[in-house]
Fold:
Amino acid sequence: MSVDLELTPKTKRPKGEPCCEPIVYPDVERADAIRMAQLAKALGDPIRLQLVDVLRKHAGKVCVCELVPLFDIAQPTLSHHLKKLRDAGIVDSERRGLWAYYYVVPEALAPLAGWLGDA
Amino acid sequence: MSVDLELTPKTKRPKGEPCCEPIVYPDVERADAIRMAQLAKALGDPIRLQLVDVLRKHAGKVCVCELVPLFDIAQPTLSHHLKKLRDAGIVDSERRGLWAYYYVVPEALAPLAGWLGDA
DNA sequence: GCTCAAGATCGACGGACATCGATGCAGCAT
DNA sequence: ATGCTGCATCGATGTCCGTCGATCTTGAGC
Structure:
């Protein structure tokens, strides 16, 4: 036999109004949030953001040898950043002979842009 | 006396066309890139992105005690994420008694939204 | 005063990241 | 074949990040 042991009701609130309106919940699906966060993370480095900017403004495909002198970093570091952007699906590349050409994947940033758009 | 020693001209290129059009340079200022990257970095975590989403949709200020049960993380972790967003200038907080209320800083995301906007 | 609750801060841990030099690997030229 | 060139990859290093339990701080209620 056991007493109906009442646990702490956790309803102890200061007398005044409650802290806020009942309940709030996110209306961005978790999967969408993960995808958008992945895009944002890829843009979360000044060099990568400028890289995307250059590739966007320069409509066609841009050779890596053009990108290297634009930034004050070693070539392997630039290659690393380009790979990050590629892994995030923001840019893609194409090899022609010795050179590699990078370009922005159309609409890749659309989810994030759209979400940021509706202020 | 010394010979005008000619260093490697670095102009050795395959016969065909050059790798691409002359020169490309970023037209996003470095300072702007740093700022936007900072914003993007703060959004580069699914929980923080959902946090901003909740705060945005819920026009007023939202109590932390409402936010905690929405995510499957410990309270210190949530507090850490809120601090990250505050440091980035995306949200701000206000204490009332025991509770802390968070809200999105208007136009804080405008730079990034604007840049992403002009596709 | 004391006790409890909400939230921030601290300390630690494991994993990820940015950076670089060295190296690897194709492809062009001689 | 040999050498050079553009780019990717590897390994190492130092820093930052996400997470949590423990603790601190502030304020409300007794």
In short: Residues 30-117 of chain B form a domain with the Arc Repressor Mutant, subunit A fold (CATH 1.10.10.10).
